[in-house]
Amino acid sequence: MVQKIIRDTLFLSQRSEDATEADRPLISDLKDTLQANSKTCVGMAANMIGLKKRMIVVDLGIMPMILINPKIIQKSGSYEAEEGCLSLVGVRKTTRYREITVEYLDEHFQRQRQKFSGFIAQNIQHQCDHLEGKII
Questions:
Q1: Count of other CB atoms within 10 angstroms of residue 100
Q2: Largest CB tally within 10 Å, which of 1, 7, 87, 115?
Q3: What is the DSSP letter of 52?
Q4: How many angstroms from the chain centroid is the CA of residue 121?
């Protein structure tokens, strides 16, 4: 179900808690809301639709990818980036990494470990910041 986008910075600045299998319905809400906002959004975290759970979705171009309880365990190649956010107005500067390795659960709650680079890595870092309550 398409959910309303949260723009309350007090809410968005709070850390999210681990997602569990009981949070499975959130997967389709994240995918549906991302698709409904696809012209202006390439990823989102669960807190952006009102739930402080550690779950994100990123647009891979051909399909959305769900990462549950993602943890960036390696990063390399820092650079300065400018990013916008569906929950915020304007563009802000931030530091990102060209390559990251992430441990996460997939949408079937199976443990995964994967390397990402380029724009997808940047997108995942942005969404993981949301989970930590970091507002760029």
A1: 23
A2: 87
A3: -
A4: 11
Token reading at 82: 């400018």
The list of the chain residues with pLDDT below 70 reads none
Amino acid at 109: F
H helix runs in the chain, sequence order: 9-12, 25-36, 118-131
Are residues 102 and 113 in contact, defined by beta-carbon separation less than 8 angstroms? yes
**Radius of gyration of the CA atoms of the chain, in A:** 14
pLDDT of residue 135: 85
pLDDT, residue 98, reads: 98
pLDDT at position 89 is 81
Query: 115: closest CA among 99, 129, 126?
Result: 99
Count of beta carbons in the 10 Å neighbourhood of residue 53: 22
Domain boundaries, the chain: 9-131
CA atoms within 13 A of residue 86's CA, in its CB half-sphere: 25
**Nearest to residue 44, comparing CAs of 83, 96, 71, 5?**
5
- The phi, psi pair for 126, rounded to 5°, reads -60, -45
- How far is 93 from 84, CA to CA, in rounded Å? 9
Which pLDDT belongs to residue 113?
98
